[in-house]
Structures are given as C-alpha cells and as structure tokens.
Amino acid sequence: MAEDRVERRLAAILAADMVGYSRLMEADETGTIARQKAHRAQLVDPQISAYGGRIVKTTGDGILIEFPSVVAATECAVAIQRAIAERESEIGEDRRIQYRVGINLGDIVIDGDDILGDGVNIAARLEGLAEPGGVCISDMVYQSVAGKLDVAFEDLGERQLKNISKPVRAYRAVLSGATARPASPDDGVLPHFDKPSIAVLPFDNMSGDPEQEYFSDGITEDIITGLSHTKGIFVIARNSSFTYKGQTVRIDRVGQDLGVRYVLEGSVRRGGDKVRVTAQLIDAHTGAHVWADRYDGTLEDIFALQDDITAKVLSAVGPEITLAEIRRVRSERSESVDAWDLYLQALPSFYAMNKAGYEEATALLHAAIEIDPCFSTAYATLARCYVDAGFHAWEASARESISMAEDCARKAVALDQQDPFAHVALGLVRIFNTEPAQAVNELNRALELNPNHSSAYGYLCSALAFLGRTDEAMVAANRAFRGSPRDPERYMWYIGIMNTHFAAERYEECVDAAQKAVLLQPNFYGGYIGMAIALPLLGRIEEARAAVRKLRELTPRLTVGGTARNPLFVREKDVARMLESLRQAELPE
After folding, report:
1. What is residue 181's predicted lDDT score, i.e. its pLDDT?
2. Beta bridge partners of residue 263, listed in sequence order
3. Residue 44 has pLDDT above 70, yes or no
4. What is the DSSP string of 6-52?
5. In a 10 Å sphere around its CB, with 0-12 CB exposed, 13-18 middle and 19+ buried, how is residue 589 labelled?
6. How far apart, in whole angstroms, are the C-alpha atoms of residue 121 and residue 287?
7. What is the rounded average pLDDT of the residues 46-69?
8. CA–CA separation, 192 vs 88, rounded Å?
9. How sure is the predictor about 312, in pLDDT bands with cuts at 50, 70 and 90?
C-alpha cells in the first residue's frame, strides 16, 4: 500500500506563456529565438533562482515553475515582467516579446520531476486571463501577498475556468510599466463580470419623425441611469452603448464587444402626448429572450413607464436584485416633463463635443432650469458644458468658463447631494482649479452613488495622477475602459493615463498615451501637451517642438507662465519637470 501512495505537497505554481508565439516566429524566427534565449539566460532564469523557484518544465513558448512561497513567486513574476517590458521597449509592438503569467497556491501531485493536479491547472488557466505583459493571481495567492509587495491588485471577480468545476476569484497585478495599461476596445473580447452585466442599446425611434430621435435616446439614457445606480449589477456606460445607434447588430457580438451577459433593446413611438415603449431583455450568450413587454401611456406617465422597465430588468437579471432596489434609487430627472424634455434635447448637442453643440446645449439647459430651478442634473450637465468650453477654448476666457462651471456644479450638489452627476461635475472643476485631493473626494462620492459611472473613473485617474498616486490611477483607468470600452470620450481617459505615466516618470508610455488621445481627438490640445512635456525628457527635442507648434495652433494663448499659474500637477518635482520640458520645447514664456 505504501508503494501506491501518491506524493503531494502545497506549493506556489507559476505558469507563463509567450504572447503571439507563432506570429512572432513566422515574422522573424531567428531574431525571436535569439531574444528569447537572451531573456532566459540574462534575466528570467537568474530571477527564478534568486527567488527560490524551480523550473519544472518548458515548452517552445511556455514555462512552469514551482516556488516554496507565494510572495516569492509573485515578486519574481512582477520583477520579470517589468524588466522584460523595459528590455523590449525599443522593439516595435508587433515584434515585442511579452508573456502572460498566472500564479496559484494549491495542492500538487509529485510525478518524478513533474507536478500535476488542479493547483497546476488553475495556474495555467489564470495565465490565460492575464493581459500581455501582465500577472494574474488566484484569491489564495492574493490573501497571502496583499500589502506585502510594491504593487496594487485589481479584483477581476469570480471566473469560471475551463475544466475547473468551481469558479476561481482572480486578481490582476497593476504593473508600473508599458504593459500596465487599461483594457481598450482593440484588445478583443472582454472578460465577463461575476455579477449580472448588461448593455442597453439605443431604443429605436418608431415615431416616423426624426425630430423625435432625442426622445427615444432620452428614454434609453434614463433607463441606463436607473440601472447604473444598483450595486448588484454592472452596466455599460451610455457612450459605449450609443456607438451601436442606427446599426443592425448581432446581440452575441454586442455581448462579446462589451463583455456583458445581457442586452436590453427596444423602441419608442410617440404621437402627441401618447407614448408606446417596447423592450426586450436578451441573454447575449444563448440568444434566449429573458423577458419582453410593451407599455402604453401618456407623457405624464413616462417616468412610471421607465421605472417599471428598469425594475423588471433588475428582477430578471439577478434574483438578489429586487423591485425594492429600484424604488430605493432616486432618479435625477426633473419632476417637470417639459424641463426633462428640454434636458433630453440638450444631450445630443452636449455629446457632439463641438462649439456649435456646446452653444445649443447650454441654451436648452438654461431653458430647462428656467422651468425647473431645482433640476440638479441640468445644472451638473451645464457645468460639464462650461468645463468643455474651458478645455477647448470655446469661450474667450478659460478661467471665466471654469468659474461658471463651478457655480453650476456647486448649485447642482446643493440641490441634490445624492446626484452622482453633480459630484462628477464638481470633481472636474476641482481638477481644473488644481485641487486634485478635493476632486478625488467628489469623484469617489459619485462612485459611491453610482458604481457604474465610467466618466467618474476616467477623471479620477487624472486626479490621482496629479497627486502621484499612480497605481491607483491605473486601476481607475481600467475601470473606466471596462465600463465603457467604446466611449467617444475615452480620449480624456488616455489623457489621464498620460498624466499617470508622466508622474511615474515613464516617459515612453506617456508619449504613447498622448498619441492615442490625439488619434481619438486631434483637435484637443491635451495630448500635445503630454508629448511636449515627455519628449524632451527622452532627448527627442525636435519632436517636442513640433508638438508645441501644433499646441500653439490649437491654443494660441498658452504660455509657460500661464501653465505655471495653473499646473494641475501639485507635486513640486512634477511641476518643475513639466515647466522645464515646455521651455526646452520652446513654448513662449
């Protein structure tokens, strides 16, 4: 019997795999093999030995390692990933060697020099969840390493791993390096959350009148808002859902694109004061209709119709979410249908992100406020309009625009302390007033009220970056992109990432994020500032001067002195580096 006994032990298991191995080999077999061997000999194997690891086996593109300590395994993985990112930084992205790493703590079966069992299998599956250049760990590992390493971790929730019967809670290391970046729409299929997740597609306007388009959009937006307040459900932001507007889409494709389990779609027909709303909830995985209904009423009934749809969706997608939850949530909309209608008309202009849209939106919002002076969300949106005017120089004085924004944001918060839009607006104002600590407080309050508010996460990234809290900033950026991966406003989130990398003195990554912001919004000056402050620190002075020339075209009044008076960054070393770079890039004093 003793001879048949299986030998077991508890161990930390690290599984790693090269990203795109076949593609790299096809493109440059000799160069890839040479660089891979150099990394192993000069970096990977020495680090494994230094942290007490044992290489169990290798394949052409993978490696399995056993460690006696989960802290050592995780610290080793982080050190290797950061070092490889640095070594490969001069290589083009399409030829760059990157690894995914998964780490688990579990019982293993000893088979000679090999190790087997679920503990090994889970590490391999976690490796598949990691992003290129990233590290993904199990909950058992996280409980042992949290607070012991100089790295933050983002909770990915429980995941159903292939051939593993029980879900495994996973965490992603937020690395300080080129690969520590938020997921983006170009990264492919997004992971699903462990709680119910939903995207609300723009409801079709069936009224036969294009002028009523704003009304069907408004119905959609209000339902998104109602769902977003609920902590038990993950809701894709309005800006990403609306990228499907006017398109014929496959529900399963939407589910994959946005990483959600459920999709709500519907239509609105309005004639006079009569309204008909149809809605159906679809399981994006199976295509099954979970629930469908039709509502008929008048404009006076419209709020009750929307609340009914929201309540039924909530009760359908998660048994833990009850009708009482939606009744608990207080909607920000005005009690006046006329004021609410004007607010809805303003939204398309607000989202247009141009001067004509700004002027149209502010006029409509002022009209809504005149009807209902207590309409907090109208004040908050008006504040956002004035912030955008300051951003884009749509008014003669940026400071005057921000001052008007502050007045509106303060009014919004005073009218309704429970309105997350009000706190986001005031947070933005705080950022522009070089008060990032106060901005963090306001944006976190918005997220307490609406945990699905992607814009709040996006702006929180910049506020944290200005304070030098760069790991937290990258976590916020990831949450912004995950909540709204197709958001047209995401150029501002890349600005936040740009600020984060500058504060962390990662200048190549700062330039990369700035360039992504410019690609998304070439007429916004923020990305060019990022290039102008980072490129001199890389010795690329001529490129920095070209960025400043473009910057001056977009914002002729910008000077070094003006930047010094309102630097946004608050740490002295950040401000000093920024101003010196702008001088080297020949921004006028």
Report:
1. 38
2. 199, 282
3. yes
4. PPEEEEEEEEEEETTHHHHHHH-HHHHHHHHHHHIIIIIHHHHHHTT
5. exposed
6. 31
7. 87
8. 31
9. low
The answer to which of 175-179, 196-200, 433-437, 465-469 has the lowest mean pLDDT is: 175-179
What gap in Å lies between CA 303 and CA 307, rounded to an integer? 6
Name 338's Cβ contacts closer than 8 Å, sequence gap at least 6. Answer: 371
Q: Are 463 and 440 in contact (CB under 8 A)?
A: yes
List the Cα angle 522/523/527 in 5-degree steps: 60
Q: Distance between CA atoms of 4 and 223, rounded to whole angstroms?
A: 62
Task: Provide the sign of the torsion angle of the four alpha carbons 465, 467, 468, 471, taken in this order.
Answer: negative
Query: Which residue has better confidence, 238 or 363?
Result: 363
Instruction: For residue 58, give the 3-state DSSP assignment.
Output: strand
pTM, 2 dp: 0.56
Extract long-range pairs of 368-374: CB within 8 Å, 24+ residues apart: 368/334, 368/339, 368/340, 368/342, 368/343, 369/339, 371/334, 371/336, 371/338, 371/339, 371/342, 372/334, 372/335, 372/336, 372/339, 374/334, 374/415
DSSP H or E stretch at residue 280: strand 274-283
**Eight-class DSSP state of 112:** T
For the chain, which domains are there?
2-180 (3.30.70.1230), 197-328 (3.40.50.10610), 335-432 (1.25.40.10)
Q: How many angstroms separate the CA atoms of 101 and 437, rounded? A: 35
Confidence of residue 4 (pLDDT cuts 50, 70, 90): low
Place of tokens 């014929």: 248
Give per-residue pLDDT as tens, 445-465: 998 888 878 889 999 999 999
* pLDDT per residue as tens digits for the range 186-226: 343 444 444 577 888 988 888 877 778 888 888 888 788 77
Confidence of residue 327 (pLDDT cuts 50, 70, 90): very low
374 close to 415: Cβ distance less than 8 angstroms: yes
**Contact of 528 with 514, CB cutoff 8 Å:** yes
The residue behind tokens 């936040």 is 496
Tokens 């608990």: give the residue: 328
Three-class SS of residue 264?
Answer: strand
What lies within 8 Å, CB to CB, of 71 at 6+ separation is 144, 145, 148, 149
Query: Is the distance from CB of 431 to CB of 466 less than 8 angstroms?
Result: yes
* The total number of residues written for the chain in this structure: 589
Looking at every residue in the chain, the average pLDDT score rounds to 82
Say whether 66 sits in a helix, a strand or coil: strand
Percent of the chain past pLDDT 90, that is, above it, reads 26
